[in-house]
Specification:
646 residues, Cytochrome Bc1 Complex, Chain D, domain 2, two-stranded antiparallel ribbon, 2 strands, 1% strand, disordered N terminus
C-alpha cells in the first residue's frame, strides 16, 4: 500500500479522533460562567418581555411576545457551552417556558419558571449568575458611556429621538417615558445591555463594555425617566444589590402608600456614607494583613497566603473608587499584595516580610485618606460659618471703632477715606481668592503639595489670630490698639494714610478668610459634598454679619468683646489643630513629607488626627505653643504689668 493511500485512510480517522477529543474536552470555567450568565440574562429578559406583551390570557403587544421567543432561542443556543447534566435540565426548563409562552400563560407563572431555572442553574454550576456590585455604580460614568454609546439611537435625554432613530425599525425605546419601564429593574437594563435584543438595532455589549461600565450605563438609563431624588430611603432599601433587583413598581410598593417617583429616584441613587464604608473596609484589610503577617512569621505559609488573599479580596471592595482617584497608588497596593501572597514561606526572611507589611501599611494609609477623608457636612458648615463671622466681626469692629474715633476727634469729614480703604480691601480680597484658586487649578501635578502648603500657612495664621484675640480680650487693651492705629494715621494727615489703615485692617481679615476657606475646601475633599455646606455656612455667616452691622450702626448695640474674643479664639485654635494634621497629610500625599505609620495611634479625620509620626508631631508642637501662649498671656504679662506699675 502506497504512502498516499495510507494518508487517505488515516486523514478521516485522525479528523474523527480530533473532533472526539475536542468534544470531550471540557470548556474552560470562564467560558462556562459566561454562557451560564448569558442563559440567565436571556431567560429573565424573555419573562420581562412576555409580561409586557400578554395580559389576561391575550396578546396586547405581539412584538414583545416575539421578543420573548427570540430571547428563549438565544438562551437555548448558549446551552451548548454548558456541561452535562446542567445543560439538559436547563434545556427542559426552557422547553417548558416555550410551552407557557405558546399557551399564553400568566406572566407571573412565566417569571416564576424563569427564576427557578436561573436558581437551579446557578446551584448546579456553583456560580453567582447575577453579578451585582456592592456599591451604587457611578452615574457620572454612566452618563459618559450613554452619550458615547447610546445617545445616537435613544437620544441625549433617552426619548428615542437620536440622529439614527428615524432609520431604525423598530424605533428605539423611549427611556424617558415615566411608565414605560415600571416593570424593569436596573438588573434588567444590565442584562439587556449585556446580551442585546435580537431582531433590533440593539447589539450585545458583553465584550464592548466592561461590567463596570455596563452597570453604570444601566443605572443611568434606568433613572432617565425619574425626577430629582427627594425624601428618605428606608434601611431595607439602602443596599444596591437589593434595590438593583427590584422594578420601579416593587420599590414603590415597598416604600408604602403615598410614595412618589422622587423617593424612587432617591432609592435608585442612594449611596451609603462613603467615608464610613471605606473606613470599615480599610480597618478589616489591616486586621487581615496583621493576621497574615503573624501566620507567616509562625511558619504557617499556606494559611498566611490564604489570609493575604482574603485581605486583597476585601480591598477589592473599594479598589474601583481608588483607581479612579489614584491609579498609580492602586497599582502600588496591588503589587504589594502580590508580594505578600507569594513571599511567605521558607524563602522570605522576617525582615523582608516586615518590609512588605510596612510598605502596604503606608500605601493603605494614603489610600484611606484619598477615599475616606471627608469632613462631615455639618462640620464644614460650622467652620465656614465661624470663619466668616469671626473675620467679618473683627472687620466691622475695627472699622466701627475707626469711625467712632474720627467723630470724637472732630474729623468726621474724613470718613470717606475709610470707605475707600474698605472698598479697595474687598476688591483685593476677591482678587486674592481668584489668584489662589487659579494657582491650584493650573498646577494639578502639585495639587497635594500646594493644598498642604495652604493648610500649613492657614494653621500658622489661625494660631496667630487665636493668640491675638485672646491677648485683646480686655476692652482697655482693644481700645489702646485702635487708638494707636488712628493717632498714627491722623498725625500723617493724608487721605492715603487713613485709607491705608482701613485697607490693612479689612484686607488682613479678607486675606485670612480666603486662606481659611481654601484650606477648608481642601480638607473637605472635592465635589458638591464640600461646596454645598461651605456655601451654606458663608450665606448664614453673611446674614449674621448684616444683622450685627445694622445693630451696631443703627441702634448703637455694643458687643461683649471678652467672651466673643475668647470663644472665637478657642474655635480658631481648634481649626488650626485640624489644618496642621491635614496639611501634613496632604504633603505626604504629594511625597514632600515622609510617612511613618504608628499602629497604636488613633485615626480621627474630623480632627485632623492620623496615625503617622509626622502629623502627630506637628499637632504636638501646636499644643505646646498653645500652652506657652496661655502662660505668657495670663501669667507672665500680668506680672510684668504689676512690676511696671510699681
Amino acid at each position: 500500500m502506497s504512502n498516499n493511500h495510507l494518508r487517505m485512510i488515516l486523514k478521516p480517522v485522525a479528523a474523527g479522533l480530533l473532533v472526539g477529543i475536542l468534544a470531550a474536552t471540557p470548556a474552560p470555567a470562564q467560558d462556562v460562567a459566561a454562557a451560564a450568565r448569558r442563559v440567565a440574562a436571556t431567560v429573565q429578559l424573555a419573562a420581562e418581555e412576555y409580561r409586557l406583551g400578554v395580559s389576561g390570557g391575550r396578546v396586547i403587544a405581539r412584538a414583545e411576545v416575539n421578543e420573548a421567543g427570540l430571547f428563549l432561542s438565544e438562551a437555548r443556543r448558549n446551552l451548548d457551552r454548558i456541561p452535562e447534566p446542567a445543560s439538559t435540565r436547563a434545556r427542559a426548563a426552557i422547553d417548558r417556558l416555550d410551552s407557557l409562552v405558546a399557551h399564553l400563560a400568566e406572566p407571573d407563572s412565566v417569571a416564576r419558571h424563569a427564576a427557578d431555572l436561573v436558581a437551579a442553574l446557578g446551584d448546579e454550576l456553583h456560580l453567582v449568575l447575577d453579578e451585582i456590585p456592592q456599591s451604587v455604580p457611578s452615574l457620572a460614568r454612566g452618563r459618559e458611556v450613554y452619550q458615547a454609546t447610546c445617545a445616537s439611537c435613544h437620544g441625549p435625554s433617552g426619548r428615542g429621538d437620536g440622529p439614527q432613530a428615524a432609520a431604525l425599525t423598530p424605533r428605539p425605546a423611549n427611556l424617558a417615558e415615566p411608565d414605560s419601564q415600571r416593570g424593569s429593574s436596573p438588573l434588567d437594563f444590565y442584562r439587556r445591555i449585556t446580551v442585546g435584543t435580537a431582531a433590533t438595532a440593539m447589539p450585545p455589549y458583553e465584550h464592548a463594555l466592561s461590567a463596570e461600565d455596563r452597570w453604570a450605563v444601566a443605572l443611568y438609563a434606568s433613572v432617565l425617566r425619574l425626577p430629582r431624588p427627594g425624601g428618605d430611603v428606608p434601611a431595607a432599601l439602602r443596599s444596591f444589590p437589593t434595590s438593583a433587583r427590584m422594578s420601579d413598581s416593587a420599590v414603590l410598593a415597598a416604600l408604602g402608600p403615598g410614595a412618589d417617583r422622587a423617593r424612587l429616584a432617591a432609592v435608585r441613587t442612594f449611596e451609603p456614607e462613603a467615608g464610613h464604608f471605606a473606613a470599615a473596609v480599610f480597618s478589616e484589610v489591616r486586621r487581615q494583613l496583621d493576621s497574615a503577617y503573624d501566620l507567616a512569621r509562625a511558619g504557617r505559609a499556606q494559611e498566611a497566603r490564604t489570609t493575604a488573599m482574603d485581605a486583597y479580596v476585601t480591598f477589592e471592595q473599594i479598589e474601583r473608587k481608588l483607581r479612579v482617584k489614584d491609579p498609580a497608588l492602586t497599582a502600588e497596593i496591588e503589587a504589594a499584595f502580590t508580594l505578600l501572597r507569594t513571599r511567605p514561606g521558607g524563602s522570605a526572611t522576617p525582615e523582608e516580610l516586615s518590609g512588605i507589611r510596612q510598605r502596604l501599611a503606608r500605601a493603605l494609609e494614603r489610600a484611606e485618606r484619598t477615599i475616606a477623608d471627608r469632613l462631615p457636612a455639618s462640620s464644614i458648615f460650622a467652620q465656614s460659618f465661624v470663619i466668616l463671622v469671626r473675620e467679618g466681626l473683627e472687620a466691622i469692629l475695627v472699622i466701627g471703632a475707626l469711625m467712632a474715633f474720627l467723630v470724637k476727634s472732630g474729623n468726621e469729614h474724613r470718613r470717606r477715606d475709610i470707605h475707600l480703604g474698605v472698598g479697595a480691601a474687598v476688591v483685593m480680597s476677591l482678587l486674592t481668592a481668584a489668584g489662589l484658586e487659579t494657582v491650584l487649578v493650573l498646577s494639578p501635578s502639585h495639587q497635594e503639595g500646594l493644598e498642604g502648603g495652604v493648610m500649613l500657612v492657614a494653621t500658622a495664621t489661625l494660631f496667630y489670630v487665636s493668640y491675638w484675640l485672646v491677648s485683646k480680650m480686655e476692652v482697655s487693651v482693644w481700645k489702646r490698639f485702635v487708638r494707636g492705629k488712628m493717632e498714627a494715621a491722623l498725625t500723617r494727615g493724608s487721605a492715603l494714610a487713613l485709607a491705608s489703615v482701613a485697607f490693612l485692617a479689612v484686607y488682613r481679615e479678607g486675606f485670612e478668610t480666603v486662606l481659611f476657606f481654601q484650606a477648608l475646601a481642601a480638607s473637605g475633599g472635592p465635589g458638591s459634598g464640600t461646596w454645598a455646606p461651605l456655601g451654606a455656612g458663608i450665606g448664614a455667616g453673611g446674614a449674621v454679619l448684616a444683622v450685627v452691622y445694622v445693630a451696631i450702626n443703627r441702634f448703637g448695640v455694643r458687643l461683649p468683646l471678652k467672651p466673643l474674643f475668647a470663644v472665637t479664639g478657642a474655635l480658631l485654635y481648634y481649626m488650626a489643630f485640624v489644618f496642621a494634621g491635614k496639611g501634613i497629610a496632604e504633603l505626604q500625599e504629594g511625597g514632600a513629607v515622609s510617612l511613618t505609620p504608628l499602629e497604636w495611634a488613633p485615626r480621627v479625620p474630623v480632627m485632623g488626627v492620623y496615625p503617622t509620626a509626622e502629623s502627630l508631631a506637628a499637632q504636638a508642637v501646636l499644643v505646646l505653643l498653645a500652652l506657652l501662649a496661655l502662660i505668657w498671656i495670663f501669667v507672665v504679662e500680668p506680672k510684668k504689668q504689676v512690676a511696671g506699675s510699681r
